[in-house]
Amino acid sequence: MGISIYPYEYRFSRINTSTQDAFMHKALTLLRIRSILTPQETPMNRFVRFNFTKDTAVAFGASAVMIFLSLIMLLFGGDSLIDKAMSFILRDLLMIFGLGIVFVSLYVGKKAGSLKALGFTGQKNALSLLIDFLLAAGLLAMFLKDEKPAGILEIKNLYAATYILVAGIFEMTFIYGYLRASFEKAFGIIPAILLTAAFYSFHHAGFQPEFLHLFFVGLMYCSVYYITQNLLIIFPFFWGVGALWDVIVSSEAGEEIKNLESFIIALIILVLSVGWIFISKKRLSGQAR
Fold first, then answer.
1. What whole-number distance in Å separates Cα of residue 112 and Cα of residue 6?
2. CA 110: distance to chain centroid?
3. Which are the contacts of 25, defined by CB distance < 8 A and separation ≥ 6?
4. Which residues of 61-100 are buried (b: 16+ CB within 10 A; e: fewer)?
5. Are 190 and 51 in contact (CB under 8 A)?
6. What is the pLDDT of residue 281?
7. What pTM, to 2 d.p., does this model score?
8. Is residue 164 within 8 Å of 247, Cβ to Cβ?
9. What is the 3-state secondary structure (H, E, C) of the chain?
10. Are 96 and 170 in contact (CB under 8 A)?
11. Is the pLDDT of residue 188 over 60?
12. What is the C-alpha to C-alpha distance for residues 65 and 48, in angstroms, rounded to an integer?
């Protein structure tokens, strides 16, 4: 009777001891191999490690596409209709909307907690926003101490500011979000900061080639992120003050977007982005049912 109730236990007990020992030895060997191949989180490899995966290769590939699109813009730097159309396609549609919204939502959005993976962790939101505001105020005070530009509230500057803030969504989602997280997972925090800053600098190649300056700007933003590990510590205030002042006041590149055309393009990209996110969420909720 006992054998019929527990047939598998009975059969296993009939296996000779040597077979059981061999089975246990193989199981333990597989567990050891798995522990060796799977990196364990330690204080040291949190900062520097090497775990190159398929996701890492995709991140480098996406970075190369971003730089390629930026470099191609150098061929269309004129004021003709074709130049403006190509600039819109390359930078606004393919880079800002394509990589920053579509690619990130398709590649990262399928994973649970996708916003957390990008850096909007939801942790220490109040503290992050407070530090963000204080850093922005300090940065603005430093700028105003050296220079007090006239006509900063002119309508053309407001057009440029709108475009810059919309473009900033791309930098947060793709560069400081997706790329930084991918590089941190593969190489640790320190290489992630350096690589993210480098790609942040290179992505300006076609419209603001100030590589060394922008590299240090990228280092600053990326390093500050790790204070709370929440992108709200740099966006929108700290990043916004730096970007607006850098482009509108300090850089000659800002003159190209101080017009109604750039304002309209910013609104188009914003509407496309909101529409894409709405449709994507609706489609995912439909699949969940």
1. 41
2. 15
3. none
4. ebbeebbebbebbeebeeeeeeeeebbbbbbbbbbbbbbb
5. no
6. 82
7. 0.83
8. yes
9. CHHHHCHHHHHHHHCCHHHHHHHHHHHHHHHHHHHHHCCCCCCCCCCCCCCCCHHHHHHHHHHHHHHHHHHHHHHHCCCCHHHHHHHHHHHHHHHHHHHHHHHHHHHCCCCCCHHHHHCCCCCCHHHHHHHHHHHHHHHHHHHHHHCCCCCCCCHHHHHHHHHHHHHHHHHHHHHHHHHHHHHHHHHCHHHHHHHHHHHHHHCCCCCCCCHHHHHHHHHHHHHHHHHHCCHHHCCCHHHHHHHHHHHHHHCHHHHHHCCHHHHHHHHHHHHHHHHHHHHHHHHHHHHHC
10. yes
11. yes
12. 26
Whether 218 contacts 196, CB under 8 Å = yes
Contact criterion met (CB below 8 Å) for 251 and 208: yes
Q: How far is CA 259 from the centre of its chain?
A: 28
Measure the CA–CA gap between 270 and 282, rounded to whole angstroms.
18
Q: Other C-beta atoms within 10 Å of 9: how many?
A: 11
Residues 41-75: pLDDT tens digits? 566 788 999 999 999 999 999 999 999 999 999 99
Q: Is 206 exposed, middle or buried (0-12, 13-18, 19+ CB in 10 A)?
A: buried
